[in-house]
């Protein structure tokens, strides 16, 4: 079997999901190292909204999370819209103190993992009287790069060990004991070019394309847009690398035939024939 599957670039998160599910439906299983790029991840058309609503109706009927619920594990849009104008600290604190206790499960709290780090005892690491916030550190560093005068290409060649621009979501203190069921999104990497275009690459150890991937792509696009806006950069491409990609046709509360039917409706509406 091939060791990778590289798809054509698409323009939006939904278009990427439609293409990926279509290709996964005909690919020999299992599929390792699925790679694709979304060139304008912050864009979405009215027609795409209708397809997403169709998917979400199926999710509700099949007793799994909607794309909006999944996307909020990566970037909590409602909290951002209601709190960020009051200050970034208020936004982060509201998520950790008010939102997280209501939604916390074993997995799916990716935004928490991006904005706090626990010590060996499980308590948040502090800098002064504030939590260590890797995402805010990343934004501050990006902002300095955007504002820097006399830029050269070298300033944007960021090494893989530049921790201030790499945000791992895997936490060895919490996750090392699990052989299965760990966080699927393991790492997000931001890179900025000489034109102040912010590129995001997300690494998945395993990516489930019926119950998770559409919401994941929407959430990553929102995260990228947030970081770019906070740093004064432009939104660039979003690239996904999935070590394993799974088209989870069957599941609790749904049959494979029903999943196939909704996929075909979405493919037809989105031009994937």
What does this structure look like?
The chain contains 10 helices and 9 strands. By secondary structure, the chain is an alpha/beta fold. It has one domain (5-270): 2-Layer Sandwich (Thymidylate Synthase, Chain A). Strands 1, 2, 5, 6, 7, 8 and 9 form a 7-stranded mixed beta sheet that branches. Strand 8 (207-208), helix 9 and strand 9 (234-246) form a beta-alpha-beta unit. Helix 2 (46-61) packs antiparallel against helix 10 and helix 3 crosses helix 9 (213-231). The longest helix is centred in the last third of the chain and has 19 residues, at 213-231.
Could you state the order of secondary-structure elements as H and E? EHEHHHHHEEHEHEEEHEH
Quote the beta fraction.
15-25%
Shape: globular
How many structural domains in the coordinates?
A: 1
Q: Indicate the structural class.
A: alpha/beta
Q: What is the average per-residue confidence, as pLDDT, rounded to a whole number?
A: 86
CATH hierarchy: architecture: 2-Layer Sandwich
Low-pLDDT sequence parts: 152-165
The major beta sheet can be summarized as: 7 strands, mixed
Say how many strands there are. Answer: 9
Span of the ends, CA to CA: 25 Å
Oligomeric organization of the protein chains = single chain
User: Radius of gyration over alpha carbons?
Assistant: 19 Å
State the helicity in percent bands: 40-55%
CATH topology: Thymidylate Synthase, Chain A
The CATH C-level name is Alpha Beta
């Amino acid at each position: 079997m091939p060791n990778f599957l590289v798809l054509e670039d698409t323009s939006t998160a939904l278009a990427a999901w439609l293409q990926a599910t279509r290709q996964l439906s005909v690919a020999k299983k299992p599929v390792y190292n699925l790679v694709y790029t979304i060139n304008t991840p912050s864009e979405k058309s009215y027609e795409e909204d209708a397809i997403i609503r169709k998917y979400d109706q199926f999710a509700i009927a099949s007793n799994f999370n909607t794309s909006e619920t999944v996307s909020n594990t990566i970037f909590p849009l409602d909290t951002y819209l209601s709190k960020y104008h009051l200050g970034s600290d208020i936004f982060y604190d509201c998520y950790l103190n008010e939102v997280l206790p209501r939604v916390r499960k074993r997995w799916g709290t990716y935004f928490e993992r991006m904005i706090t780090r626990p010590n060996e005892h499980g308590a948040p690491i502090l800098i002064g009287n504030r939590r260590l916030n890797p995402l805010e550190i990343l934004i501050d560093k990006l902002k300095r790069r955007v504002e820097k005068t006399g830029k050269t290409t070298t300033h944007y060649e960021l090494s893989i060990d530049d921790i201030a621009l790499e945000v791992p979501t895997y936490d060895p203190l919490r996750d090392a004991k699990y052989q299965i069921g760990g966080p699927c999104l393991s790492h997000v990497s931001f890179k900025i070019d000489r034109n102040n275009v912010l590129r995001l690459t997300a690494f998945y150890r395993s990516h489930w394309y019926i119950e998770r991937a559409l919401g994941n792509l929407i959430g990553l696009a929102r995260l990228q847009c947030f970081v770019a806006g906070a740093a004064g950069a432009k939104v660039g491409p979003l690239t996904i690398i999935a070590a394993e990609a799974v088209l989870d046709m069957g599941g609790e509360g749904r049959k494979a035939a029903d999943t196939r039917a909704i996929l075909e409706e979405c493919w037809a509406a989105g031009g994937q024939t």
